[in-house]
Give the backbone structure.
Amino acid sequence: MSSARLHAPATGPAEVFAALGDPTRLSLLANLSDGEARSITKLSADTHLTRQAVTKHLHVLQQAGLVSRARIGRESRFAYEPAPVGTAKAYLDMVSAQWDDALSRLRRHVER
Amino acid sequence: MSDRIEKSIDLAAPIETVWRALTDHNEFGAWFRVKLDGPFVAGEISTGHITYPGYEHVKWRAVVQTMEAPRLFSFTWHPYAVDPAVDYSQEPPTLVEFRLEPTPTGTRLTLVESGFDALPSNRRALALRMNDGGWTQQMENIRSHVER
């Protein structure tokens, strides 16, 4: 079996948030998140979307690094890539921790 | 995944006290650790500089959006714009909202920061913001310093 795996370049949280900010893409990703790679045909059937719509949304997800594409013979299969979600979550966690810190200082300030 | 951060805390202080701590620029600066150049005015740009040890080179710049005493204070800013070599002004900002409600024991403060999905794809700026190790560790150092 010859398999050429094409990874999108590493992306920051912004691309990931933007790519996730669409219900259709979220449902495609949810579908793929079980770890099984699927063809466009299979994804179209599973989601009741047209082939063109699936192709367009997969392209956005691939650009953000959220899915990878592997060619197996003449067929392309798409698979969920968990790393970018981790990156985006780490960014939000950092901002969140910063606010925890600031709010605890506010508490000391107003409750003294 | 959410593109917003939301936090609520109950403070044992009257709503007027919390409102003042948020909107008086000197009081805000004391707990937020920023030296502001002047008072907050709705619709106007607020400037200053961060007073964290080691981060004094970082400028504070926000645009005050709403001041509805004593319920809502909001501003837009560029979160973690920590690199003086990067011009963050062209990026879409995030919105920070402080909502206050009186409670039997004081005040409930709800903080929402939203708009992360609109942040730009500027790799360099975001890579610097991500700068995991450094910034996170620095925050921990500060926390242990102030809380001991």
